[in-house]
């Protein structure tokens, strides 16, 4: 395959893709970067055509690259062959993926979510770590959750690190943002159980009533769930811990809760 070839790091499109490492730039453009042919194809197969597709010579003859390039061109995007050096700078890695796609971010408005469409939904209060967030999106996808709701000030699900951790699930799981007060008001009409997670809760997570659709509320990595958020839940539960660890990693705890709620 032969697309337009670019070798200069000062090319405006290359500069624009590199700038998407900055949250400010992602927020202003509404774009994000997904690396690797598998992830780009995941985007294409779920109806998200890249606005820009960069590829290295090594990937030029791959049939799936042709498919991604056709989808990009059909949507009016740019397809560009770049050097290994450009791919390394764009990915900030010595061994970059041979394909990089730029996609449009999607956030669903809270009032458009359909709770009954899935047995379990996840709400994260002030999640800080992009690796945790990406891993949770991947687990939510694997378990068939309806979506992930980011409550309060959270890290960016579209950062390169978070997107990497989703392993392609960024395209499959609906994401929503809400302030604490918007979430509190919306939760009033939730048709199933709202289950919070607290280290101080007396109830074992295995004995809670996960009336479907269950909405699982998880706390921040440092502070946990504050009392005003825990008070929004029908029940708060604890995952038992038997050793000396005083808590579980947020993404691990979320995985345990999702599978308990969907068992
Ligand atoms: N120091 C924090 C605290 O006091 O809650 C620890 C937060 S923990 C690392 C991050 C989140 O993971 C918690 O807010 C909770 O949602 C969940 N979590 C971690 N371990 C848990 C457990 N054993 N039971 C229930 N939730 C847990």
UniProtKB/TrEMBL annotation:
Gene Ontology biological-process annotations: methylation; RNA processing
GO CC terms in record: cytoplasm
One Pfam match: MRM3-like_sub_bind
All residue ranges annotated as the RNA 2-O ribose methyltransferase substrate binding domain in the record: 33-109
Any GO molecular function: RNA binding
The keyword Zinc belongs to this UniProt entry's keyword annotation: no
Key words of the record: Methyltransferase, Transferase
UniProt keyword Methyltransferase, yes or no: yes
SUPFAM superfamilies given in the database record: alpha/beta knot, L30e-like
Gene3D superfamilies: 3.30.1330.30, 3.40.1280.10
SMART domains linked to this entry: SpoU_sub_bind
Family: Belongs to the class IV-like SAM-binding methyltransferase superfamily. RNA methyltransferase TrmH family.
Protein name as annotated: RNA methyltransferase
Annotated source species: Phenylobacterium hankyongense
């Amino acid at each position: 395959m032969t697309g337009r070839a670019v070798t200069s790091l000062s090319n405006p499109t290359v500069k624009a893709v590199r700038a998407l490492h900055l949250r400010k730039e992602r927020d202003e453009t509404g774009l994000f970067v997904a690396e690797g042919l598998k992830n780009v194809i995941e985007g294409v197969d779920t109806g998200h055509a890249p606005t820009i597709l960069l590829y290295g010579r090594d990937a030029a003859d791959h049939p799936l690259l042709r498919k991604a390039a056709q989808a990009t061109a059909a949507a009016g995007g740019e397809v560009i062959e770049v050097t290994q050096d450009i791919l390394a700078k764009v990915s900030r890695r010595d061994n970059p993926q041979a394909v990089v796609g730029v996609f449009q971010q999607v956030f669903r408005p809270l009032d458009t979510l359909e709770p009954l469409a899935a047995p379990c939904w996840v709400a994260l209060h002030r999640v800080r770590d992009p690796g945790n967030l990406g891993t949770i999106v991947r687990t939510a996808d694997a378990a068939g959750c309806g979506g992930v709701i980011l409550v309060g000030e959270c890290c960016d699900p579209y950062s390169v690190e978070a997107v990497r951790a989703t392993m392609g699930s960024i395209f499959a799981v609906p994401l929503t943002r809400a302030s604490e007060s918007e979430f509190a008001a919306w939760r009033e009409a939730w048709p199933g159980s709202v289950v919070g997670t607290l280290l101080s809760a007396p109830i074992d997570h295995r004995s809670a009533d996960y009336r479907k659709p269950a909405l699982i509320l998880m706390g921040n990595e440092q502070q946990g769930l504050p009392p005003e958020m825990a008070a929004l839940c029908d029940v708060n539960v604890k995952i038992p811990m038997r050793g000396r660890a005083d808590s579980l990693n947020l993404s691990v705890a979320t995985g345990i809760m999702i599978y308990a709620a969907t068992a």
